Amino acid sequence: MANTAPWVVVGLDNGGTSNNATVLDSSGRFLVDRMVETPSLVREGPEVALAQLVRAFEGVLELTGTPRSAVRAVGLDSPGPADANGVIASTGATNFGHPAWRGFDFRGALEARLGLPVVYLNDGNAAALYAHHAHFGAEAHERSSVAAVVGTGLGGGVVVHGRVVTGAAGMAGELGHVHIPLDGLLEEGQPAPTCNCGFTGDVESIASLTGIERNLLPYWLTRFPGHELADVEPLAKAARLLRGHAEHGDPLALKIFEQQAIAIGRLFTILGNVLDPDAYFVGGGVVEAAPRFRDWFLGKVREHTALRAEQRRIATVALVRDRDMAGARGVALAALAAVRGE
């Protein structure tokens, strides 16, 4: 006889400082409506980090009153670089600096630790998947979308018919490393921006916190002599303070964020010609801001997304909803689809 008892999946969003967990029942209803965080301790290596994920898993089950026997699968997301199966890159990563992480099978190790099937997505893909389903609801499997998530880098994803496109090597949706035209984006004499990946003029070199620190802020401080951020050290701290200045209308900050919005608009223009999606989503710290600044930034992205008239009648440019919870919710949706065989 088929097992008809209620069942759930768990979503675990693994970050550089915290894990966030959620529970999704078989009908597609989330059982928690807020962040459920525990320290991730990823810098202490895989063994410590895995123990923390188990703690997050058990904690969210206790919070929701869900028996462990009801869990059919677990979704896991983490920052990259990692392949489609959740194996961390052999060179390591910003959040996975401990040598034991290099080439570590993160998904497989958590699956062995929990004794449950584990589905893996990178954090950008997970946020993109949640944004897609939250926006389209029952029509999610009939629609397509792209998402750009601005953080330390530029993450994101491509969703077609409700499913994340991962690609042959798991590298699809690395939108931050798409090259964009720089003519008309940079000021005369402004140096071409470089990315940590080695590229010059990709989206992440402009639209990311790293891009602000490495490329944009050093230039614009020369154009605004005496600006108070010039006295803030280190430069990384000044970069983190920039959004607060933009929220208060600071001209230097608005110049920088306008360049970021132009970069994302040009990315969406390219993707519009390649994929012609139903929606373009923007997420991350740059839009987790005061409504006036957030709306201004999104308006600039729309202004610089060059779509054909036919596309403009159909497509929308919108925010990633519930950004802090989007990763955990996205991988929970992926796990639910896997259990259903979708």
Automatic annotation (TrEMBL):
InterPro entries named among the record's database cross-references: ATPase_NBD, ROK, ROK_cs
PROSITE patterns named among the record's database cross-references: ROK
Family statement drawn from the similarity comment of this UniProt entry: Belongs to the ROK (NagC/XylR) family.
Listed PANTHER family: BIFUNCTIONAL UDP-N-ACETYLGLUCOSAMINE 2-EPIMERASE_N-ACETYLMANNOSAMINE KINASE, ROK (REPRESSOR, ORF, KINASE) FAMILY
Protein's UniProt name: ROK family protein
